[in-house]
Amino acid sequence: MSDHTDPYLVGLDLRGRRVVLVGGGSVVQRRLPLLLAAGAEVHVIAPVVTPAVESTEGITLTLREYADGDLAGAWYVLAATDDPDVNVRVLAEAEAQRTFCVRADLAREGTAVTPATASVGGVQVGVLAAGDHRRSAAVRNSLAAALSGHTAQADDRPKPAGVALVGGGPGDPGLVTVRGRELLGLADVVVADRLAPPRLLAELAPNVEVIDAAKIPYGRAMAQQAINEVLIDRAKAGRFVVRLKGGDPYVFGRGYEELEACVEAGVPVTVVPGVTSAFAAPSAAGIPVTHRGVTHEAVVVSGHVPPGHPDSLVDWDALGRLRGTVVVLMGVERLAAIADALVAGGRPSDTPAAVVENGSTDRQRVTRGTLATIAAAATEAGIRPPAIIVVGAVAGFEQGTLSDSSRTTRGETCESQPSSPE
Predict the structure, then answer these.
(1) 191-214 burial, b for 16+ CB within 10 Å, e for fewer?
(2) To bridge 120 with a disulfide, which of 39, 147, 341, 419 should be the other Cys (CB 3.0-4.6 Å)?
(3) Domain enclosing residue 89, as ranges
């Protein structure tokens, strides 16, 4: 691409069209959400990928080195490896077959460039600033703020120091707080969980270092001590670090552990609460965790270890005696044992139960049943984390009314579209 001409901005219709991403690092991690949202048929080719890329649903992942011919049939290509020679080969193959290609390591050498983007209220914004990524991101943030009804200018905001623990909300990027999005726009480094809304990462400027701290159930995980160390290391190097978590940092998110480590090391910490999935996911599925005349209590517990396990701190017998709502996080793989424990503690086996998978996102699914049937229903539906379990009378609510017993006990799975937050 010539240094003396401006690129031609255009919107691509990628629905059902093959898009090839060569590389498996943070650049690819940031691009995946928008490409999938655009309906692209995404293929990732790399010998090694981040845990977040590995766990992304809806992509075709090939774990090997790039080879000539991998771009056949592609409409759009991203060369994003850490080897310039490989990126040159990818670009050459793309050009030979007249496919536009973004070269992540040297943008001006590619045949396409990726703008700083934002989507606010159905309006998409794309900004290019002659390769000045910080400027394009700042302008993008200002435009997004203006479209959202805010007047703060990105360039006028002082950069904080230290670490910010930011709750990203339940999954929908529109449910992150205004303060959380503002701090993400100022970050030099973002340390992100797997459950942090991935589309928020797509909004980051290319110069922002993204560190994948994904904790994949039964898969790879970054040790908590390593996370603490990287927060402290980057902050002491003078960089502003955002620790982006799903939900709220203090609701089973180990946020306070990270705060303690930073404070002990002399690193200042800002805490930005997030919308917890414990309440937001049921809400997005039409299930209130409390309701006048039905329940006066809602208890949130962790199901990451099963009832009866020596490490469990949950009094399952006491929960079984409660009449209100029980919300269980991280309990999908132990759902049968949890249901049995609640029944053993005194809950009737016909108590309504529901599992909300990928709450608040466009992949949200709700599986319904009772304590007697919900585990089998979830298994039949192929429910996988992240998912929230709700037990109690409110779990039988559908479309604002209590389901009749026949609908409640069938263990139905339905697609549920959350309403737009904007």
Answers:
(1) bbbbbbbbbbbbbbbbebebbbbb
(2) 147
(3) 18-109
Q: Tens digit of pLDDT for each residue in 55-92?
A: 898 999 999 999 999 999 999 999 999 999 999 999 99
CATH number, domain with residue 67: 3.40.50.720
Q: How many domains does the chain have?
A: 3
pLDDT at residue 220, as a whole number = 55
> Is there a single domain that holds both residue 262 and residue 346?
no
Q: Which residues of the chain, if any, have pLDDT below 70?
A: 1-4, 121, 131, 148-157, 215-222, 399-422
Q: In terms of domains, do 284 and 410 share one?
A: yes
Residues 162 and 259 in one domain: yes
Same domain, 53 and 93: yes
- The pTM score is 0.76
Q: Which residues, in sequence order, are bridge partners of residue 42? A: 19, 59
What span, in angstroms and rounded, lies between the C-alpha atoms of 282 and 280? 6
**What's the Cα-to-Cα distance from 356 to each of 171, 287, 381, 418, rounded to whole Å?**
12, 10, 12, 12
